[in-house]
Amino acid sequence: MTHFVSDFEALLVYHGPSSTRSPATSMKQRCLQWIVMLAAILLLSLPAGAASTRYRGDVYLLRGFGDVFSEGLDQLGADFAKAGVPFKVVSHGNWRGVATTIIANQKKSGPKPVVLIGHSLGANNAIRVAQRLKTAGIKVTWLVTLAATAPPLVPSNVRKVTNHYFSHGGWGAVVHPGPGFRGRLENIDHAGKAEIGHFNLDQQPAIQRALLRRVKAIVRP
């Protein structure tokens, strides 16, 4: 911005050698100055960060019980922030508010990608957000559930769901499609991996890398 303003000021001051300027050239110079000045005014009047906060869709990360057992979602949020991905990390208990906000955003700006990622109780309620969005006719681009404890059926408005669970030796259930579901459903079993359990599934580097890569592609500028 500093360089732009300096260049702008220089353009306003410089008129060229007076002995070589014709009336037509002088008029063109003044017109150019006014155009640049108006552009500068418009640019400087934009709110700070306006370009970076342009609405590109809704990405929500829903924490589990007590908001203290989903540290991996906070880590993932930090990675999203570094990558310029718009997101919000919320308590699983706020799922109704999440649905209400997404519905309002989509009504205002038109269809945009929706990504829902939840851990533990947050995984259960991420599905409930998707169910609420279905009643408003809104598609969910990607639903990710990590160690869901009692997952509802996945509604038909979800295009893709990826569920990380434990068939044994861990706490996390399989998810099932609801009536009319035509999307893609993946149930990824982490049973038998001694280092992975319910409380750290969301912290696994491989899972976080996959989430970051895919979400960046979904909500790219």
TrEMBL record:
Coiled coil: none annotated. InterPro entries: AB_hydrolase_fold, Thioesterase. The chain crosses the membrane at residues 31-50. Residues 94-151 form the Thioesterase domain. It holds the Pfam family Thioesterase. Keywords: Membrane, Transmembrane, Transmembrane helix. This is Thioesterase domain-containing protein. It comes from Mesorhizobium marinum.
